[in-house]
């Protein structure tokens, strides 16, 4: 299968945002320094190396093009589903599992926040939706169409005001000196 660069991404266009040369150079330098230093938990080494590889891959790298091809297909499918069902937003739990215990790297993390917004580039925000197991904060993520940040903020505000799920964190008891 051949992957074609979308018209919006080609070598004649300057990279902007995190893919700009000045930003990438700074990030790669800091990431390389961190990896060389070994001053990180060993459990994240593979993720750091993968991030370094992704950040340094040329824009015509076959793996990059493959990712962009599927990312665009996913983006269009989400837009079509929203249009077909007349949706302003897609709403889903931010996490589908309670938080892991510190040091537990084997049980499912359940993070849903990276499933739709990052690969589509669509705006999303999370609001409190209560507590799981009576003590762990649970969030509700709202994903909107491109440039719908204002609508999402209105929905989030209305939801927060209607449910009053937001609670201040427990504070540490004062010391008795």
Automatic annotation (TrEMBL):
Q: Which Pfam families match?
A: Amidase (PF01425)
Occurrences of domain Amidase (ranges):
38-152
SUPFAM superfamilies, alphabetized: Amidase signature (AS) enzymes
UniProt cross-references to InterPro entries, sorted A to Z: Amidase_dom (IPR023631), AS_sf (IPR036928)
Leader sequence range is none
Question: Entry's PANTHER family?
Answer: AMIDASE, OS04G0183300 PROTEIN
Q: What is this protein called?
A: Amidase domain-containing protein
